[in-house]
Amino acid sequence: MSDAFSVDLDSFSLCASTADLDEEPAAREHADLIEFRMDLADDPLDALADYDGDPPLLVTNRPHWEGGETAPYGRLDALAAAVEHAAVAAVDVELATLRGRPAGTNEIDAEGLLDRARERDAAVVASVHDFDGTPAPATLDGLLRAAAAAGDVGKLAVTARTTGEALDLLTATHRATIRGDRVATMAMGEAGRHTRAVAPVYGSRLGYAPVDAADATAPGQYDLATLRRLVDDLS
Ligand SMILES: O=C1C[C@@](O)(C(=O)O)C[C@@H](O)[C@@H]1O
């Protein structure tokens, strides 16, 4: 992999989140990375083969059971094929998958996918999503610890129903950063929206935003230009 396509997880990176790699020209100005939501794309491997943009790619192929669109069959195989592309600098794998949740029919298993990512120098984002709420602080700590240990960065997206829950996530982010865990956090939903701008102040390494707010890939996302400005202003 060329150095041009790598991700620095020791500082914050902003991902333009999209199902359409043709958005690259619009994303390039503000994004450090493009999160390619393979599960939301029509022919993701063909689109990857045609990609000749500047920002490195983070590939995500989210299953139904974690808020995505991909059926289990061939899901990990598609990610394994994706990391073969030079532009792919990182791959998102759910913590549940890494912990052995049955992945459906795939030639490769989670361990094989991790090995493939390592061989290709692709960073692994071990992710956890809670679309219903925000777990108690001790659970937030446990999830961040486990995710950070399972991948190169542990990502936790929860749903904040109150600003107090958003604050719980920020506090857990701060605690994780202080103990040396590399994490990325965001609270979905209106009450958590500001965490997308503020969590990087507490050590969150990744943020996600659509080029156009109408194409949000999660509740409460800012558009890309707005999140770039907010993060830059606060850092
Ligand atoms: O996991 C994440 C974070 C996210 O859910 C968000 O809340 O911004 C958006 C997803 O596209 C990405 O895979």
In a few lines, what is going on in this structure?
This protein is an alpha/beta fold and 235 residues long. Helix content is 34%, strand content 20%.
Strand content: 15-25%
What is the arithmetic mean of pLDDT? Answer: 96
What's the name of the CATH homologous superfamily of the domain at 13-127 and 194-234? Aldolase class I
Mind telling me the CATH class of the domain at 13-127 and 194-234? Alpha Beta
- Total beta strands: 8
What string gives the helices and strands in order?
A: EHEHEHEHHEHEHEHEH
Q: If you consult CATH, what is the topology of the domain at 13-127 and 194-234? A: TIM Barrel
Low-confidence stretches: none
Roughly how much helix do the residues carry, as a percent range? Answer: 25-40%
The CATH architecture designation of the domain at 13-127 and 194-234 is: Alpha-Beta Barrel
> What spatial form do the alpha-carbon principal axes imply?
globular
Rg measurement, Å: 16 Å
Count helical runs. 9
Q: For the terminal residues, how far apart are their CA atoms?
A: 30 Å
| Unique bound compounds | 1,3,4-trihydroxy-5-OXO-cyclohexanecarboxylic acid
Structural class: alpha/beta
Q: Which strands sit side by side, in order, in the main sheet?
A: 7-6-5-4-3-2-1-8
Organism: Halobaculum saliterrae
Active site: 129 (proton donor/acceptor), 155 (schiff-base intermediate with substrate)
Keywords: Amino-acid biosynthesis, Aromatic amino acid biosynthesis, Lyase, Schiff base
Family: Belongs to the type-I 3-dehydroquinase family.
